[in-house]
Amino acid sequence: MGRILHSTNACIIIVNHIGNEMSKKIIAEVIKSKSKISIIINESTTISQKSALIVYIWCCVKGSGMNSPINLFLDLVELESVKATGQLVALLECLHSYGMKDEYLKNYLVSVAFWHCANHRLELSVGDTIREILSINRFKSFLDKLYVMYHATPKNRRELRSCAELLNIQLLKIGRILNARWVSSRFRSVFAVWENYEALVKHFEEAVVGPTWDKNEKSTYAGLMCDALQKLSELSLDLQKRNINLYKANKKIKALVQWARILDQNHWPDNINNQVTFGETEIRNLSLRLPLNEREIIRGFLEYLAEKTYPENLVHLVQALDTIPISSSECERGFSQTNLIITPTRASLMTKTVSTLLFIELVGPPLTSFDPSKYIDSWLLSGRHSAVDTKSKERRREDMSNENLQKLWDLL
């Protein structure tokens, strides 16, 4: 970093400059493309105990040649108030700061998603079921004891690993189940117990620790839990996919707007050629709701009926429908990444700095594809010092000399 750009403050300023330049370019392209957008938001408290609103945009960036929507992290906003009005004010200020004024939002914003995502609703349903089935509660208690036994004691983990090696079993990690986790994660924990079962039994026999359970009872409970959680796991994993759209989600949760079904050929009648006005009402309603050019969309739909492929006039409608969010799971991934950045030893980072680091991590290119020259130019044009600026005060370096170790250092 040359002579002067070595301080923590300089690094923060550089990171913020690069992140701001990246976000401005992408959001400017989104606005220029006049694509429909959806806003996905979620509120949480970070490790540093700050209430923050994470903001994602789901849209098509036409200038990049992308035809399908993509989730773009926009910002992490520190909240002054966690009430609905406070979150609304913070969201609007955030969008306005990126050039998304009220007129733009009125014309291109399709929806704002701020709810428990389908995965969380699935968790609630599982939790209600668990409370009604006593046998599963007993199995949960058993697995919780296994988790504590092997998570908190390295000695027990080493002994279990030795048992697995003797039996030639690949040891899987045992985690908690039936707590605040996605169903697919719970399934992996149960599956780990299922796969490690022989090693666990051998360890019990050798170490004589933990509760004593009948083997048949263990197998019965494990079988019941695996069968039940496997079905729920498949649904949970489908809902977490980044490319989930309105049609795919409809097949899973049956919650589509009826108008959109008109675009699915599976719902067309056999005598469609005899119905002159087929689908026009639904297409008109969709055009008014989104809003889109009604005549252009109807003309495109008529071509779609004849050719069975989406014409250019209908692509705008299809992309607009695809930007309707089904799950807020991307926000959860963003908060997980936030907690990786805000570690207990870095809990004093400002929210703006965390937001910039998040943007670079989630949206920015990998280092091998990163071209720093354009950001160096904008950095210098903004009046900042270069790394080799001789007119600036040179960084004072700490004196690391040590007479006692100098002779040893000469050998290295």
Automatic annotation (TrEMBL):
Sequence ranges assigned to domain HAT C-terminal dimerisation in this UniProt record: 308-361
InterPro entries reported in the protein's UniProt record: HATC_C_dom (IPR008906), RNaseH-like_sf (IPR012337)
Lineage top rank: taxon: Eukaryota
Protein name listed in UniProt: E3 SUMO-protein ligase KIAA1586-like
Native source species: Hydra vulgaris
Upper lineage: Eukaryota, Metazoa, Cnidaria, Hydrozoa, Hydroidolina
